[in-house]
Amino acid sequence: MLEFFRRKPSAFGLTLTAALLQVVLLFRAFGPLFTAPGQYLFVEEADGAKNYYTFQAYLQQPWERGLRWFEGMNYPFGEYIFYTDNSPLLATAVKLFSHYIYDVTPYGLDVYHGLILSGMVLSTVLLMSLLRPLVRWWGLALVFSVLLPWLSPQLCRLTGGHFNLALSWVVLLGIWGTYQLYTRTEAGLSIRQPVVLTAVGLTLAGFIHLYYLPIVGLYTGSFLAWWLLRSGRWRQWRLLLASAAVTGLPVVICYATVRLLDGYFKLRLSTPTGFNYAPWRLALPALVQAYPYDKVRFLVEPETPVSYESKMYLGAFVLFGGLLLLVAVLSRPARWRQRWHDWQSTTGGRWAMRALGAGAVGLFAAMGTRYAMGGDWYFNNYLSAFVYLQKISGSIAHFRAFARFNWPFFWAVNLGAVLALDYWLSTSRPWWRWGVVVALVLLAWLDTRDTLKAYRKGLLPNTMTNISRQPELTQLLQAVDARQYQAILSIPYFHVGSEDMDLTVDDDNQHSLRSYQLALRTGLPLMASKMSRTAPAQAQALASLFEGSAPAPELLAKLRGQSILVFYDEAAYNGARTPVALQTHERPRRLLAAAPGFISRNQLPLVAQVGTLRLYRWDVK
Q1: Sign of the torsion formed by the C-alpha atoms of 459, 81, 466 and 34
Q2: Is 409:362 a contact under the CB 8 Å cutoff?
Q3: Which of 94, 216, 486, 519 could lock onto 562 through a cystine, CB 3.0 to 4.6 A?
């Protein structure tokens, strides 16, 4: 029987089996998204609601507006698609498909779900391509290529609303590319195909979310630098060009494209905020803190939950496996020292250590340039690449959500653990080793099972595009002819993303969700905004609606023509936790408090009212 498991099936058969198993798990966790289209969402507030809106609104906007333009927010200025956080490459692809082949716009969010979740299958394919040549026991490759994508820290981005950051295949593509470059070079094989696939894939991923470029680039650059410098291969121009292609070329292409197509580039704030902001840095205890839904907990973990950005649990398989290894090494250090030396002579062992070293570079970067040690003490982290990168270019500081740079480390540790387990299983003879392997695989499955349960139970009703769940808006819109208006002005007003804290007006989740619903149903753009790097001058012009005696002349000049539909929610100004009270700066508080006065000051006629929701007409003069 053991000989059967030693005998590897064909690469195609094993990969197909793993992909099909992954599809089964996807249906187990997210089946209702596909069996009941249009009925469920991952999240319905904060960035998640906004990202759903920007994706759907882009699909709905007239084709004549062009592919690079988004008019759904920040009206009348609009924005370029690169700054909408709506997965530009995916949104553009769906819009092209809808225009030229078949219109899927009414099912936009269902298509979006399918595109994001299909990345889990691609992650499985990449993992199988990585593991199968390196392991002797193909069952381990099959099991972990299916389970590990469910343990990735990127998966929690689905419930956080950062859907385009949930694509673990992007990080795995960078790892796969360096693996292919390393192993093929060592074997004397051609590296052209993996270099092209990796460079093209990472370039495309950069147009899904720009953060992938520095995260993966730091890993690939570190891996290749360590390998080429230690081996002396840095003298080979072919390898230097290949390294530049997979590490630097995607960055150059994506940055140049955004820069050339961005007509607002000179208006954007060049100095970023939030650099070294504590909740965006990795807290090392996050590596051992299980997710709330995990039933298996490690022996030690912090009592206080880590921040959302810092969620980086390594998993029960790695932690308990590492603990067993530590006990074994301490009991027979000489024997395990020899095992370590022997493993380093294998292809898998050499590659795993280089991958772990490159992942560690990301780990140190994830900690930020200043790591809090408690009280008023900080560790000046000179091991962080950002200490040096920001000296080369200050713009690198825009990538200030440091904790994300730890994602390659998660994969390096887990893949290294699988390879080490396979090596031990292949070179040891005690019968009980199978019990250890089964126990460790079971730990990985238990974490996966808990994840599947949590996500299946966590799906929410679709309040974004399912009009049956919007009875108040349905009643409100009965008296409105959207063709008479050019845009929607929401009160409470919100404008997030300019990076200028005096102009950042945070939104109320319930009100902004209703604003998105209203905009999608009427087809009218929002004057409010919640995007990235919006020009402060535009935010200032829109803020003038509620400050001073009259709006900015340049704003009025753009608005003259059709009327503006003013959407006012009176309930947002009642109670203790109003949007006014939640603002962290004085000017946004004043601006929000003055917003309702805009209606009375301009003597706007009432168009419709349902409960605390009201619609007014503003005839711009």
Answers
A1: negative
A2: yes
A3: 486
By the 8 A CB rule, do 433 and 423 touch?
no
DSSP string over 284-303: GGGGT---TT-S---S---S
The CB density around residue 483, as the number of other CB atoms within 10 Å, is 10
Task: Pull the structure tokens for residue 326.
Answer: 């530590």
Number of neighbouring beta carbons within 10 Å of residue 100? 8
Structural tokens at position 294 = 């995990």
DSSP string, 69-137: EE-SSSTTT-EEGGGS-S-HHHHHHHHHHHHHT---GGGHHHHHHHHHHHHHHHHHHHHHHHHTTT-S-
Torsion sign over Cα 290, 294, 298, 304: positive
Cα–Cα distance for residue pair 570/606, rounded to 1 Å: 13
Q: Does residue 443 register a pLDDT over 90?
A: yes
Mean pLDDT calculated for residue range 234-250: 92
**Structural contact between residues 98 and 105, judged by C-beta atoms closer than 8 angstroms:** yes
Alpha helices in 459-508 (DSSP H): 471-476
Please name the helix (run of DSSP H) or strand (run of DSSP E) that holds residue 367, with its range, or none.
none
What is the per-residue pLDDT across 86-130, written as a single tens digit (0 to 9) for each?
999 999 999 999 999 999 999 999 999 999 999 999 999 999 999
- Burial class of residue 529 (count of CB atoms within 10 Å of its CB; 0-12, 13-18, 19+): buried
Q: Rounded CA gap, 94 and 57, in Å?
A: 12
Asked if 157 contacts 166 with a C-beta cutoff of 8 angstroms, the reply is yes
Among positive and negative, which fits the CA dihedral 603, 607, 609, 612? negative
Residues 6 or more apart whose CB falls under 8 angstroms from that of 581 comprise: 589
606-610/613-618 β-pairing? antiparallel
Q: What angle do CA 305, 308, 310 make, to 5 degrees?
A: 80
Question: What integer best gives the mean pLDDT of the chain?
Answer: 91
Task: Reply yes or no on whether the pLDDT at 5 is more than 80.
Answer: no
Which helix (H) or strand (E) element contains residue 350? helix 347-366
Cβ–Cβ < 8 Å for 75, 485: no
- Give the Cβ contact number of residue 376 at 10 Å: 6
Instruction: Of 33, 162, 200, 156, give the one whose Cα is nearest residue 86.
Output: 162
Q: Looking at the DSSP assignment, which residues form a beta bridge with residue 286?
A: none
Q: Tokens 């959207």 — which residue?
A: 482
* Residue 4 neighbours by CB under 8 Å, 6+ apart: none
Give backbone dihedrals phi and psi of 32, rounded to 5 degrees, phi first. Answer: -60, -25
Question: Burial, 431: exposed, middle or buried (Cβ in 10 Å; 0-12, 13-18, 19+)?
Answer: exposed
Nearest-CA neighbor of 362 among 314, 301, 411? Answer: 411
Residue 250 predicted with pLDDT over 60:
yes
DSSP H or E stretch at residue 32: helix 11-35
Chain centroid to CA 310: how far?
13
Q: Rounded distance, CA 532 to CA 539, Å?
A: 12
**Which residue's structure tokens are 């917003």?**
595
Q: What's the CA gap between 144 and 22, in Å, rounded?
A: 11
